[in-house]
Design goal:
Layout (H helix, E strand, L loop, with lengths): L3 H18 L8 E5 L5 H9 L4 E4 L2 H14 L6 E4 L8 H7 L2 E5 L2 H10 L7 E6 L13 H12 L4 E7 L8 H20 L6 E3 L6 H6 L4 E4 L1 H4 L7
Parallel strand pairs: 1-2, 1-8, 2-3, 3-4, 4-5, 5-6, 6-7
Helix pairs in contact: 2-3, 4-5, 6-7
Bound molecules: pyridoxal-5'-phosphate (PLP).
Length: about 230
């Protein structure tokens, strides 16, 4: 079995190769290690191998993990990203404990995150989650509503709108994967044409990272390829 540190190296090399193959500068890509369902020790192992940014989906799990990492390794300064569904009664701890939130898809949630961001902390970095495949079951704002929502979020004082995030419908076909990511990129262009500057496209997971990088991703969110398969039953 390969270690987390070996996996991180392999994923970083893979990102670099994919970027170069698309004529892109590998420096434009950030790796978010998605540590949901994995223990604090896995985060520590990745951090000690040089990983700085970690993504979590479940608030309670994330808060406990952050505390444990902090207690065991107070010298580690990690950057935590919230990437899961947000209930409106959970916005306060999210705005108090994370540097980024990728899963904002409603004005009300954005307003609460902005109001509740503690004074003295830097503004909270936001990606607007877009339901790019239009699946009824998925979170995310519909593409046709994204520009209007971006305009509302961009003016909130506690937040900085950085870009867009999407989790497209799963497909093994790289052309289908690329089509969805291309739509997200075009939507980002539309928002920028409306006068809002963005620098982030949070797109690509373990199974569709190459397609996302080819279509302009600036942040890939990788769980399985770093930490292994998740076991939700545990
Ligand atoms: C779990 C998750 C990931 C990581 O997925 P892998 O397939 O394990 O790389 C990325 N983004 C979001 C929003 C997730 O929920």
């Amino acid at each position: 079995m390969s270690s987390i540190s070996d996996n991180l190296q392999a994923v970083s090399a893979d990102i670099r190769t994919a970027a170069l193959a698309s004529g892109r500068d590998p420096q434009q890509l950030r790796l978010l290690a998605v540590s949901k369902t994995f223990p604090a020790d896995a985060v520590i192992e990745a951090a000690e191998a040089g990983q700085h940014c970690f993504g979590e989906n479940y608030l309670q799990e994330a808060l406990e993990k952050m505390q444990e990492v902090q207690a065991k390794k107070p010298q580690l300064q990690l950057e935590w990203h919230f990437i899961g569904p947000i209930q409106s009664n959970k916005t306060r701890p999210i705005s108090e404990h994370f540097a980024w939130v990728h899963s904002v898809d409603r004005e009300k949630i954005a307003q609460r995150l902005s109001e509740q961001r503690p004074a003295g902390m830097p503004v909270l970095n936001i990606c607007l989650q877009v339901n790019i495949s239009g699946e009824a079951s998925k979170s995310g704002v519909l593409p046709e509503e994204a520009v209007a929502l971006a305009q509302k979020i961009a003016v909130l004082p506690g937040l900085q709108l950085r870009g867009l995030m999407a989790v497209p419908e799963a497909s093994d076909d790289e052309q289908v994967q690329r089509q969805a990511f291309r739509q997200l990129k075009l939507l980002s262009d539309d928002i920028q044409a409306a006068g809002i500057s963005l620098d982030t496209l949070s797109m690509g997971m373990s199974s569709d990272m190459h397609a996302a990088i080819a279509e302009g991703s600036t942040m890939v969110r990788i769980g399985t390829a770093i930490f292994g398969n998740r076991n939700y039953a545990k």
